[in-house]
Amino acid sequence: MVNLFKIASYLKISLLSLSAGRLRSFLSIIGVVFGVMAVIVIIAVGEGAKAEALRQIEKLGTTNIYIKSVELAEDKKQHAMRMRPPGVTSDDLARIRTGCPHVSAAAAVVEIPVSVIGAFKEITPQIVSCTPSYADVIDLRLQSGRFFTGSDITGHYQVCVIGDHVYEKLGSGGGVGNRLRIGDHLFKIVGVLERYDIKSPKTGAVSARNYNEMILLPEGSETWLLPSTGSESAGNTLSELIIGIDTVSHVPEASGIIKKIMAMNHKNIADYQVVTPLELLQQSKKTNELFNLLLFGIASVSLLVGGIGIMNIMLATVSERRREIGIRRAVGAKQKHILVQFLTEASLLTFTGGIIGIGAGLIAVFVLKLASPWELVITAQAIILPLIISSLTGIFFGSFPAWKAAQLDPIQALRG
Amino acid sequence: MPAPLIEISNLSKTYTLGNESLAVLKGVTFCVGQGDFLAVMGPSGSGKSTLLNILGCLDRPTSGSYSLNGVNISHASDNGLSEIRASVFGFVFQSFNLISNLNVYDNVSMPFLYAENSKKTVYEKTMRAIEDVGLSDRIHHNPDELSGGEMQRVAIARALVRHPKIILADEPTGNLDSGTGTAIMKLLKDLNNSGTSLILVTHDTQTASWAGKMMTLKDGKFV
């Protein structure tokens, strides 16, 4: 039966004897403190990285498949040029549309290497042309104005949609209706994108574009902004194709088909790269599992070391307090009472270590957050888990000393 | 005639150290009745402390029988002996045996940790026991702030706090000056007068003279 008065009594005894050797108690829990602290910091870093990766991947869209052009090395390029224009083309899109089921939308993007006149100081806007479907496929939202329509393209209208930072830098000249000079042409601003919270732009294949610093032009603008662009026959080189799949469950199948179509169409020349955010998501989950395993390893080792420290100190305590054990046995304590007393003491010790470790861990995370660009996330699990584990460490490593205490012969113990 | 409280018959205790065995008690037989005050005397090494430990269920006899209230407990389990110690006996030791990091109140109330009692009962009985030994003004003091006589009073309060049937005292005045020793013996005698049986082990005739009955142990036998 659980008796609160008894529990309080055991805690009181433990506190009194632990505080009688304050310095020693403190020194003995340092191992646990550092173990718990390390676990908290590692979880915070891991959770932060996970959250950031997830956000990037989700921004790319889990139902989308990206096909990006890849620059080939010079020697391979010569060979490839003879066959067809390099990279991803609108011809690829056409073949995918006919060859792959489940395609619900598609958008093409071309990066245009021109600069904006009236130069921005802090930012270099990326200028791309895209199909009107781009906004839907990657879920771009506007804070004002509109996105492109089919008639912008058919009518070759010189219009543009700008990102939030571009809008800010333009100041009063950045609103919808104003004109922006790109290359030798003036473009009328028809829309401004919402601000996107992007922490670390450009981290390899996973990263989403930095929409805040983009200027979007209607598809086809590149042909007259850059008159030198090659022949029209097999379609121009696109920077990126985005294929929208109808449901998430069809993505793996569609991804396989698209890879086959691309391989055939490009005669196995790797001047493109297929990126499937869903696969990245699954990869990132696997990476997380690996990370969790590593975390578990570090936690185990540090708590093992901490636990051995506790066992050591508890063994010393038991042999120093033989007389007390004898007295308690004489007034009627059973073996289990002695066992419970020393287990309480050991787990109180490591629990305290856990609390201090959590405090130290939170401070460390806070300092790291101020001093580093990493994102750090503290979850409830990151606090509760070390607390439980540290208490269990006390029970586990305290059980041998406690058992030894309980096994003491009362008379031997009374002799001290 | 009712069964005596304690009935010891042909009790022996032999310690084995490696190949050598040492017979400490060699067949002792005696009875203790309710309310008796028995002094066991004898030189050191005569086996009187061993006898007291066996009587107090801290140790088991090698052979012979020990009946408590008519029940043979020679072969009781460790838990069984703990329960008997908790409910029947109170111990007073030569070296007081208080727990140094607990104050007077916590030392005296300690036996209740191993019994089922409400917080209120524990408080009342503990305060009563401390009052009985005259230390009401020392409740929050730690043992190292007390004199020898006071420490032994705390030990006596701890022994009587659960109203034991028998108090076992092992040289209770051994570490005290004669004046204080007399006061402690008077306290124990008062307890005996109120109905608690008392078994005292001592080598001091002066202390033994407080008892109603004296027995002398020599080489593991009563003489």
Within the largest sheet of chain B, what's the order of strands?
Answer: 6-7-8-3-9-10
CA radius of gyration of chain B is 17 Å
Any idea how many domains of chain B?
1
Oligomer: heterodimer
How does the overall form of chain B come out from the CA principal axes? globular
Q: What is the fourth-level CATH superfamily of chain B?
A: P-loop containing nucleotide triphosphate hydrolases
Beta-strand percentage range of chain A? 5-15%
The portion of residues forming beta strands of chain B comes to 25-35%
What is the string of helix and strand elements of chain A?
HHEHEHEEHEHEHEEEHEEHEHHHHH
What distance lies between the first and last C-alpha atoms of chain B, to the nearest angstrom?
27 Å
Order of helix and strand elements from N to C terminus of chain B: EEEHEEHEHHHEHEHEE
Give the CATH level 1 class of chain B. Answer: Alpha Beta
- What fold name stands as the CATH topology of chain B? Rossmann fold
Overall average residue pLDDT of chain B: 93
Give me the Rg of chain A, rounded. 33 Å
Question: Tell me about the biggest sheet of chain A?
Answer: 10 strands, mixed
